Task: inverse folding
């Protein structure tokens, strides 16, 4: 029986794109992470993964077996460019195509959870119509996932459309499917708590029964990315404690490679920082 009390995944974007899959998986293992979270963002090279043939899928599956490092989760942010709530029908078509292919790839690779970006639209202004379209296409996306047994979880974002667990739950309840839940970003929630003068912990609790994993990320007021762990205001101990009480056992350290020479050391530091917080909570 596996005696680990929690699992900590590594965000793929914490490593350079030039690394091969084998290098990424081996490094993930070397650093002591439990799995790698695959990124499918809006760039052409990441979206191209959705069109992998059987040979390419088999190659990655074999590497996971060889290295002993699974890919349990996928961060699907490609919908930022092709959003589910777009007013353009061609964009909607592309959006649903991305969703279907992402679900199929997840199924083929053994990925359990796809983290969905909580945007109706991103590069344009939302309105009642974009929200309506988002709901309609979210229902279709959830149906796709249900056919493959893949869970979808909303990431709480940096825009007002879905920057809290409470807002995410509006759509979870609306769709009312066992395949749609919340996969929140603790750093984004921390910033949202300042915007709305609300309590992070109370917001997290509103997802009770629907939190399937959590991103652990550092933020500072008004800034959502590339903040070094330990230099921001995310209260890791208390958010992890709350997640633990609500049954969450899968966490991902979200941080980025942005061209720095010492990126491997950054990965080591992130692992050490997050493990220390997680161990304190789970061994208490």
Result:
């Amino acid at each position: 029986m596996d005696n680990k009390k929690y699992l900590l995944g590594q965000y793929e974007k914490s490593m350079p794109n030039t690394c091969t899959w084998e290098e990424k998986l081996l490094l993930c293992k070397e650093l002591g992470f439990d799995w790698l979270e695959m990124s499918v963002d809006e760039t052409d090279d990441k979206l191209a993964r959705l069109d992998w043939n059987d040979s390419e899928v088999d190659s990655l599956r074999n590497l996971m077996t060889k290295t002993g490092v699974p890919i349990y989760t996928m961060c699907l942010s490609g919908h930022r460019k092709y959003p589910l709530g777009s007013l353009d029908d061609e964009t909607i078509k592309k959006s649903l195509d991305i969703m279907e292919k992402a679900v199929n790839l997840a199924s083929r690779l053994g990925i359990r959870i796809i983290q969905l970006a909580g945007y109706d639209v991103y590069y344009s202004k939302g309105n009642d119509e974009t929200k309506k379209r988002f709901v309609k296409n979210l229902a279709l996306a959830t149906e796709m996932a249900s056919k493959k047994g893949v869970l979808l979880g909303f990431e709480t974002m940096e825009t007002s459309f879905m920057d809290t667990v409470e807002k995410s739950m509006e759509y979870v309840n609306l769709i009312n499917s066992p395949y749609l839940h919340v996969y929140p970003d603790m750093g984004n929630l921390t910033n949202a708590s300042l915007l709305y003068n609300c309590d992070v912990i109370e917001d997290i609790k509103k997802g009770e029964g629907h939190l399937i994993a959590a991103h652990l990320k550092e933020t500072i007021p008004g800034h959502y990315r590339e903040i070094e762990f330990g230099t921001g205001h995310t209260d890791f101990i208390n958010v992890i404690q709350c997640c633990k009480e609500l049954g969450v056992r899968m966490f991902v350290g979200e941080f980025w490679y942005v061209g720095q020479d010492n990126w491997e050391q950054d990965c080591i530091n992130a692992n050490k920082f997050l493990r220390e917080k997680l161990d304190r909570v789970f061994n208490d």
In short: The domain at 7-282 is CATH 3.20.20.150 (TIM Barrel). The chain has a mean pLDDT of 97. The two ends are 21 Å apart (CA to CA).
